[in-house]
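Much of what follows relies on a compact textual record of a protein's fold. A record is reproduced here so that you can trace the correspondence yourselves:
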Amino acid sequence: MTTTLVPLIRRAVLGDLDSIVQIWLQSSPSALSPNADKNCADVYQQRIARHTGHNMGIWVAEHPASGRLLGFQSLLPFGQHPGIRDFHAESSTYVDAEYQRSGVGRALLTHTLSLPTELHTIFGIIPNGQTHSHRLVSSLGFEKVSNIGRPSVATLYAFYPKHSQETETTFVPLDS
């Protein structure tokens, strides 16, 4: 097990693309994507370029001494429907195998959750075998929502930013 380190976290740039793709290919859960396209560079290139001006996007963790990319965190719209894409997001965290369980994933996720946001819900999907990841998201306030698949292969978690917990939806009957 690697000792805990404090990585430098910054927004991803196109120059990070090769490292992001390698980390994703290395840690992409085959239980969720058994036929995943091994050429995902174009997908991440679009994601890096598209999400640069607000709190959705991709962040990377760099080793403080070497500058090596240790992992990345994406916070991207959950769905494309204009009525929901600005209010619900999907969070994904990937860490280089050499640096898993060293605090990199926690640092990335904590950074993302600390950003000011108007999001109502942040979702994450974790394969069943990743016990440490389940513990991590639970410790940061994510709630288990559902199992995915029959038989279950993953768990859907949801995080509700503080501002969305402070507001309640009230249904008012329509006047007839």
Residues 167-172 have pLDDT under 50 and may be disordered. Helices lie at 17-27, 41-50, 104-114, 131-139, 162-166.
